[in-house]
């Protein structure tokens, strides 16, 4: 179990905090609005109404003892920057920030954020990938270049094996699992014929997805 401090409980921050808690993680949720704190109190480990822009407040909360921090004050760059600097100074091992745009992201990265996301863009990217790449069901970003995709097999692959298709050689696609209904096979049998009702879980680059398209 990891410990998280989530600062800023708008729609994004509140959902992140609640989901982390549902996954069994320890979550401290922080916001200046007492009404928001009252609403989320039973969905996290602990919720506190305070101003995280004050370093003394973060120290009293024990922010430096958390494994990860999520700064979700995306619309207020000054607040995000100040909180990020304080968390960095308190030696929080990993800091993720929500940003409003690329300018915000660049500034927060320079201030020491380990990862900066623009949620609307990430959702749009996933939707676009699913719409433009036939059969894509789910996509998980691992880095700016690589990700894991769940997709239905291309029609010409059905009845052939992973070994026969030479997916790694031809496309740079690493099939890491085969899912069928509720069962999943890890690693997959590379000599077994691929069935139409199976879902292929592949690790690869954006370039690989474009070649598959």
Give the key terms.
213 residues; alpha/beta; six-stranded parallel sheet; five-stranded antiparallel sheet
Description:
With 213 residues, the protein is an alpha/beta fold. 37% of the residues lie in helices and 26% in strands. The chain is built from nine helices and eleven strands. It has helices spanning 11-22, 34-40, 55-61, 77-89, 102-110, 119-132, 162-165, 167-171, 206-212; strands at 3-7, 26-31, 46-49, 68-71, 94-98, 115-117, 136-141, 146-151, 174-180, 183-185, 199-205. The strands form two sheets. The protein has a six-stranded parallel β-sheet with strand order 3-2-1-4-5-6, sandwiched between helices. Helix 1 links the parallel strand 1 (3-7) and strand 2 (26-31). It is elongated, with a radius of gyration of 21 Å. 28% of the residues are buried. Residues 129-137 have low confidence and may be disordered.
